[in-house]
Specification:
By secondary structure, the chain is an alpha+beta fold. The chain has helices at 7-10, 41-55, 73-88, 98-104, 162-166, 184-193, 221-227, 238-247, 252-258, 347-355; strands at 63-65, 71-72, 105-109, 119-126, 128-132, 141-144, 177-181, 196-200, 205-213, 263-267, 285-287, 298-308, 314-328, 338-345, 357-367. Helix 2 packs antiparallel against helix 3 (73-88). The longest helix has 16 residues, at 73-88.
Length: 374
């Protein structure tokens, strides 16, 4: 269903921000001062194509959002189709193309950030994890599929918390295991990311995708460590959490248990899949609150991305502007001022995602209308 965001580990869920009622007279909003894109167009085309594939299965009249106006699946499809057509046009003499986007699309700033750089951007990625299809002396930590008794019912009724499953072994030996991992820390962060690529002992690489969760409440272990004074909010990152867990292994089990939400997985042929059920594109897919931003829609972001040094350290921040597609969501992604950016697969992507925590601006793009509809 979804790829969980790394922000689930770093931050508590933000309070929902209600979008403004669409009662004010419609005007074309001003685009950002400079519309630019720092990645190759090929990845952008691929991400747009995946959103269109999702929309192929959605009736055109279905309402996908009420902000900044009533937005239907047909509206999002028309906007993406227009955007692809623009990308096919001959480039400007200077080789650029983003300027034409500002002429043919409305850029709607995030509801609470029309003039402020107050959208928080974090990152997530697909980890590559060593795994075994069977339990061995080295591979002792199971990854589970969704238990049969949780299907189609209120998941809380089954009573399985993280402690129940991982400490008391409530599911072990009942045929729900689909793979086994070496490291319980890797397993926990696999739950945080919501998907992974399993590097099996038999040489296969198998995508592991989100299937369901146990219905229990999510608690951020990063926030727990901050509240307990064990880590600083200013230096919080995935790398800092992992380092703390390595330094204090005796506290690991109790800390993990604080986050009762448990993720169940399924083996797949493609991955990672976002909440729209289509593959995510590195650098181009984003997770937002789908109660605010229409599923599959085109977004423009302005923020700063981490620069990672040769030793894996944070070496600085680089400003960038980029078009992304709204293709995922997550437990900690709530309200109009939260966005999670998908960085890709493997350690390099994980290093960037782990340090990603910057404010910036977010815009929803819709094809301009001559006569606006409210």
């Amino acid at each position: 269903m979804l790829v969980a965001a790394f922000a689930v580990a770093l931050l508590g869920a933000c309070q929902p921000v209600q979008p403004p009622a669409p009662s004010a007279p419609y005007t074309h909003p001003e685009p950002p001062g400079e519309v630019r894109d720092d990645l190759e167009i090929k990845s952008l085309r691929a991400a747009v194509a995946e959103s269109l594939r999702f929309l192929d299965a959605v009736p055109g009249g279905r309402l996908l959002g009420k902000w900044p106006r009533r937005v239907t699946a047909a509206d999002v499809r028309a906007s993406l189709t227009e955007f692809l057509a623009l990308l096919d046009e001959p480039p400007e003499p200077d080789g650029s193309w983003p300027r034409r986007v500002a002429e043919r699309f409305d850029f709607f700033p995030a509801p609470r950030s029309a003039a402020l750089d107050d959208v928080l951007f974090t990152g997530y990625y697909q980890p590559v994890i060593d795994a075994s299809p069977v339990e061995t002396a080295d591979y002792r930590y199971p990854v589970y599929r969704e238990p049969d008794e949780l299907r189609g019912r209120a998941r809380k009724a089954a009573g399985y918390s993280r402690r129940d499953i991982d400490v008391l072994d409530s599911l072990r030996g009942r045929g729900y295991e689909i793979a086994w991992l070496r490291d319980p820390v890797d397993r926990f962060f696999l739950h945080v990311q919501g998907s992974g690529l399993l590097r099996m002992t038999d040489g296969r690489e198998v995508p592991l995708n989100y299937a369901a969760h146990n219905g229990r409440r999510y608690t951020s272990i990063g926030k727990v460590l901050i509240d307990q004074g064990k880590l600083d909010r200013e230096t919080m990152s995935m790398q800092r959490i992992r380092a703390w867990l390595a330094e204090f292994p005796g506290e690991r089990e109790a800390l993990f248990a604080r986050n009762e939400r448990y993720i169940f997985f399924r083996l797949g042929e493609k991955g990672p899949l976002g909440s729209l059920g289509v593959p995510l594109t590195a650098g181009r897919s984003a997770a937002t609150d789908h109660r605010v931003y229409p599923k599959g829609a085109l977004l423009f972001v302005e923020t700063r991305t981490p620069v990672v040094g040769e030793q894996g350290e944070l070496a600085g921040l680089r400003p960038f502007g980029r078009f992304v597609l709204n293709q995922d969501t997550g437990a900690a992604i709530r309200g109009s001022a939260r966005v999670d950016l998908y960085f890709g697969t493997g350690d390099e992507a994980g290093a960037q995602a782990g340090y990603m925590k910057s404010t910036g601006r977010l815009y929803l793009l819709l094809k301009r209308r001559v006569a606006p509809l409210n």
